[in-house]
Amino acid sequence: MKVLLLGGTGEARALAAALHPEIEVISSLAGRVPDPALPVGPVRIGGFGGVDGMRQWLIDERVDAVVDATHPFAATITAHAAQVCAALGLPHLVLARPAWTPGDAILVGSDTEAAETVAANGYARVFLTTGRSGTRAFKDVDAWFLIRAVTPPDPDTLPVDHQLLLSRGPYEYDGELALLREYRVDALVTKNSGGAMTEPKLRAAETAGVPVVMVDRPPLPAGVCAVATVEEAVDWVRAETAG
Ligand code: NAP
């Protein structure tokens, strides 16, 4: 039994650790960050070259099953895996961590809508946490942005008035609250990524009375089998192996 584990998340690393070395798992990373946190076991890095590239790779490597544990907003790779596995008849599972409960957040469908919401509400000092690929939509919004990302966004995508904060979670409630106060933030923009590592900013925003603009998740491809926890994914892989 050989499993391709599409990764780049803490859940993917936990799943690789739970299965290795009992089951042959090859983790795949996009290669977006220069020093990625590596899972245990074999790792390949870089895109497959679209749907056709992934299909050929799965055939060449004689993969028996695919688990997609990528980030909930990594919609392209998730769509590719669903399409290719359906075409090849490969067992396929999506491990999608539970979304956050939006509470009083203003829910929007995209980065563009989030930027429109910031402008429409006249927010002036925005904590922008949508990642390096999420800054372009805010480029022309007339506000000051505290932009937190793991790696620097392309300078062409940045709003004029900003400060860059390069860091990687997990984050703590106290630190998040201090950040909101230190920078006198009047709005937080976030994706609904879910998970505990970056959730403290939501509680800090609630304490500080800072409104939250939350980008809703892209839907999963129709008909895919999905679980919410690493434990369920482990069970699924073991059941596939046994079968
Ligand atoms: P994406 O938009 O869904 O994928 C874009 C392209 O990147 C894919 O078509 C694929 O290239 C390549 N790719 C993505 N994930 C890959 C993987 N695990 N292994 C091999 N190739 C991969 O994804 P993204 O938003 O760029 O995210 C890239 C990675 O960062 C993912 O592994 C994801 O888990 C992680 N991540 C994403 C976010 C986010 O907010 N999007 C946040 C944190 C971490 P080809 O078409 O050439 O195969």
UniProtKB/TrEMBL annotation:
Q: Do the record's keywords include Electron transport? A: no
Q: Return the broad EC class.
A: oxidoreductase
**What domain of life does the UniProt record list for this protein's source?**
Bacteria
Please provide, alphabetically and separated by semicolons, the GO molecular function terms listed in this UniProt record: precorrin-6A reductase activity
Q: Which InterPro entries match?
A: Precorrin-6x_reduct
Which pathway does this polypeptide act in?
Cofactor biosynthesis; adenosylcobalamin biosynthesis
The EC designation for this entry is: 1.3.1.-
Signal peptide region: none
- Which keywords annotate this record? Cobalamin biosynthesis, Oxidoreductase
Q: Which GO terms describe its biological process?
A: cobalamin biosynthetic process
Question: One of this protein's Pfam families, by short name?
Answer: CbiJ
Alphabetical list of PANTHER family matching this protein: COBALT-PRECORRIN-6A REDUCTASE (PTHR36925:SF1)
Check the record and name the NCBIfam families matching this protein: precor6x_red (TIGR00715), PRK08057.1-2 (NF005968)
The protein's name: Cobalt-precorrin-6x reductase
What's the source species for this entry?
A: Mycolicibacterium fortuitum subsp. fortuitum DSM 46621 = ATCC 6841 = JCM 6387
